[in-house]
Write a structure and sequence with these properties.
Zn(2+) binds at residues 250, 253, 352, 411. With 424 residues, the protein is an alpha/beta fold. The protein has helices at residues 20-36, 38-49, 60-66, 72-90, 129-142, 161-170, 180-189, 206-215, 240-251, 266-280, 286-296, 305-315, 348-353, 389-405, 409-421, and strands at 3-5, 97-100, 106-113, 116-120, 146-150, 175-176, 199-201, 220-221, 229-234, 258-263, 298-301, 319-323, 339-342, 379-386. It has three domains: 3-11 and 226-369, Nitrogenase molybdenum iron protein domain (Rossmann fold, 3-Layer(aba) Sandwich); 37-221, 3-Layer(aba) Sandwich (Rossmann fold), CATH 3.40.50; 393-421, no CATH class. The protein is built from 15 helices and 14 strands. Helix 1 (20-36) crosses helix 8, helix 4 packs parallel to helix 5 and helix 7 (180-189) packs parallel to helix 8 (206-215).
């Protein structure tokens, strides 16, 4: 991994590709789903997943059978993670409120859950039970009454057992064996067997991302996720073995994932580089991880910790680890980060899987203005106005003045006619 001085460091971001061919494919898929429904869904499932399906919904017996295909230790760990994630998100609950003034006017906000949410869970050869937990639990805490999941099947039409166990533990039974852009289209527009939803959340490949982008407006989405990234701010108290391991934990996600160490310690920088090469050699995903480290990774040496934090804020990382001797002195100065992991034992995978915080985080510098997935993402707010007669008589002329200043005479007249009727 390259070691550079802070003044020489320039952040590498993958140039946004137009994906014109992929976008054209996605739009064609969406149009076919809208026009032909289940017929098109079966054809695309056959074409992309190699599965012949008549009924897309996962049969009830499959959930029970899934427990026979996973280790008891996995189930126990899953249950503990569910409890942690639920407890964390329950603290985010919001309440409706009303406020009344002395003139009898009541203003308020009604906070209500979305009615039907679709969660996309990547599948096929990989297993992502953690995606189930992180997307479903906040929706449940928000009170969403209908949560439906779409996940691609294997060639035999089966869904990964780890995913099914996670869904069963959460009580989610409306699960469809469909993946890719075709599943996003089905969730957004509906088919003969899948009713449309109000919002779609969950990660996926470029076709899923482009499909979510295409249906936005018809339904809501949470974000378009980019490559994962991590930035570690560390001083000479940090263990280079820990730092190297944490950098690799995100680099293994993909060739465009970004792993950066920022430190005022040249010694830590050099020792971390050595440890990283040694640990990299033993990784099963070495080939992918090595491309990420070589092309997108960096070790940045700064003059002091203040400059290191400045670099971190400029990068606005998805995951920021703070492994310094006095972390509490620096937390308040970090203003751009999806999640902050404090101390040597708060390694990033703790947040990915278990502690309770959500691992759906803003990527590619969007932590400057975006937040982790949370309960609010599954709520909608409605303003409530009960304007009293006294208030309208006392303040109506001000409303008329503002409306007339904008040239909207009908707006002004809607108030004026009431004032006139009351002799004002």
């Amino acid at each position: 991994m390259r070691i550079v001085e802070a003044k020489e460091f320039s952040l590498k971001r993958e140039e946004a590709e137009p994906y014109e061919k992929e976008r054209e494919t996605v739009l064609d898929i969406i149009q076919h789903i809208r026009q032909y429904g289940d017929q098109a869904l079966r054809a695309f499932t056959r074409r992309f997943d190699g599965a012949e399906l008549i009924d897309f919904r996962v049969p009830e017996a499959a959930f029970a059978e899934a427990y026979n295909q996973v280790a008891p230790e996995f189930v126990n760990a899953l249950r503990d993670a569910i409890a942690n994630i639920r407890r964390y998100h329950e603290a985010q609950r919001r309440q409706s409120y009303l406020m009344m003034d002395e003139e009898g006017t009541t203003l308020g906000q009604l906070v209500r859950p979305l009615q039907r949410v679709g969660v996309y869970v990547p599948g096929g050869t990989a297993s992502y039970p953690s995606t189930v937990l992180m997307n479903v639990i906040p929706a449940q805490v928000a009170g969403v009454p209908e949560i439906v999941v779409a996940t691609p099947p294997d060639k035999e039409g089966n869904v990964n057992p780890g995913v099914l166990v996670a869904l069963q533990e959460l009580g989610i039974t409306e699960v469809y064996r469909v993946g890719g852009a075709q599943s996003i289209a089905a969730l957004a527009y509906g088919t003969q067997s899948i009713r449309p939803v109000d919002k779609i959340v969950g990660p996926g490949n470029i076709y899923v991302a482009l499909a979510k982008q295409a249906v936005f407006g018809k339904v809501s989405i949470e974000s378009i996720a980019g490559p994962s990234d991590i930035l570690v701010v560390a001083d000479d108290t940090a263990d280079p073995e820990y730092v190297a391991a944490d950098l690799l934990s995100q680099a293994e996600h993909g060739e465009t994932s970004q792993a950066i160490l920022v430190t005022p310690s040249r010694e830590l920088a050099e020792k971390t580089a050595v440890a990283l090469e040694r640990q990299l050699a033993a990784l099963p995903r070495r080939e992918i991880t090595e491309v990420s480290i070589r092309n997108m990774g960096a070790i940045v040496v700064t003059a002091d910790l203040a400059e290191a934090v400045d670099v971190a804020n400029r990068v606005a990382p998805e995951h920021l680890e703070l492994i310094v001797g006095n972390p509490d002195d620096w937390i308040g100065r970090i203003v751009n980060a999806g999640a902050i992991f404090v101390g040597a034992y708060s390694t990033e995978p703790v947040g990915d899987y278990y502690c309770g915080t959500n691992h759906v985080l803003p990527t590619e510098g969007t932590a400057r203005f975006s937040s982790p997935l949370n309960v609010d993402d599954f709520l909608k707010k409605t303003s409530l106005i009960r304007y009293s007669k006294t208030s309208l008589l006392n303040h109506g002329h001000k409303i008329i003045a503002l409306a007339e200043a904008e040239g909207l005479e009908a707006h002004a007249n809607a108030v004026r006619i009431r004032l006139q009727k009351e002799g004002k």
